[in-house]
Specification:
351 residues; alpha/beta; Spore Coat Polysaccharide Biosynthesis Protein SpsA, Chain A; 2 domains; five-stranded mixed sheet; four-stranded mixed sheet; 12 helices; 19% strand; globular
Length: 351
């Protein structure tokens, strides 16, 4: 019997050992028979990672690396990806629990469809298992102004999983919670752009995959559970800062000049509205400052963004004649003004 392709699973942890042991146990119990786990410790306290490494039963089978310098999500992933020579690569959050059969349907589909650059499973809430999870749900989408949403989750509305998204579907981005690609794709497209540090780096990679003609696909028969903000924490001003800065950076990096002129002014207006919303809410003044900080910090990244726009990856945008699956309307307007709270209520002809 032919041995299945090698799947290398990258786990990253930063001073967080609450969830990762359970995650490793679930991955080790998968019924897929050719797995190698890479555990990247992002410069955690020495006594913490040593105690964990010595106590966990599966770690003797894992390739473990302790970074002496703290990196962002993209930097940690790239560190591991460069060590992997071939096969499939999974970027998996350390606060996830995978089902036993999570890999088989994905690898089977990607083996039959070599034009698929990346897949994601159905991502459900570990605390409420009959609901989708916020970050990924049943596949990622984004409107032309850079606001992400999912099949099964739009802003504050997370749907119950009733089988409504049990179809294989092309999507705009695959969630970094469980991001399944191939070494050959990274070789062709390039690695994660470390300029983002954390957030939107996988969306940027998906955009580049599209430029190269790859499809991005959601596979519902693969199921992963996510604790949700188990590692990073709940909403805070640091996350607000990164989301606002990185989304603008994403659009500036990947849009043509014409698209920048067409879509960025309204995005700036929406961020201006968000600033006043945060400022007038007594609980969120730090978030208002985070928006200002994001724009000030963005100025210093302009030279790096211009340099990246001249890179060959940007010029590859003409290879794929299919339009990128960006939602042509404003998801902000649809959700908050028009009352469209579910993906099924959107005009999918605008994708």
């Amino acid at each position: 019997m032919k041995k299945p392709p090698l799947v290398s699973i990258i786990l990253i942890t930063t001073d967080q050992f609450k969830f990762i042991g359970e995650c490793i146990d679930s991955v080790s119990s998968s019924n897929y028979k050719n797995i190698q786990i890479y555990l990247i410790d992002n410069n955690s306290k020495k006594e913490d990672y040593i105690n964990f490494y010595n106590s966990h039963k599966h770690l003797k089978k894992i390739k473990f690396f302790h970074l002496k310098k703290r990196l962002g999500f993209g930097g940690c992933c790239n560190y591991a990806i460069r060590k992997i020579k071939k096969g499939y690569i999974v970027l998996l959050n350390d606060d996830t629990i995978v089902s036993k059969n999570w890999l088989n349907p994905v690898i089977k589909y990607m083996e039959k469809n070599p034009n698929v650059g990346a897949c994601q499973p159905k991502i459900k809430n570990m605390r409420k298992k009959n609901y989708f999870e916020y970050a990924g749900a049943a596949g990622g989408h984004m409107d032309v102004y850079g606001y992400p949403f999912c099949r099964g989750r739009i802003f504050y509305t997370v749907e119950k999983d009733s089988g409504q998204y049990d179809d294989i579907a092309d999507i705009a981005w695959t969630s970094g919670n469980c991001f399944i690609s191939k070494k050959e794709v990274f070789k062709k497209v390039g690695y994660l752009d470390e300029i983002f540090y954390i957030y939107q780096d996988e969306a940027d990679f998906c955009w580049r995959m599209h430029f190269h003609g790859y499809r991005l696909v959601y596979i519902p028969k693969s199921v992963v559970y996510h604790y949700g903000s188990g590692t990073v924490g709940t909403q805070n001003s640091w996350k607000v800062y990164l989301h606002h800065r990185n989304t603008i950076m994403l659009l500036l990096k990947n849009y043509t000049r014409k698209e920048v002129i067409k879509y960025l002014p309204f995005r700036f207006f929406l961020d201006f509205v968000a600033f006043w919303y945060y400022l007038l809410d007594n609980k969120l003044p730090l978030n208002a400052l985070a928006v200002i900080r994001a724009y000030i910090n963005l100025i210093f990244f302009i030279p790096a963004i211009i340099k990246r726009r001249k890179h060959a990856a940007f010029k590859m945008r003409n290879v794929n004649k299919r339009p990128y699956m960006l939602y042509k309307k404003s998801i902000i307007m649809d959700y908050f003004i028009n009352g469209k709270k579910k993906f099924s209520q959107l005009d999918v002809t605008k994708l």
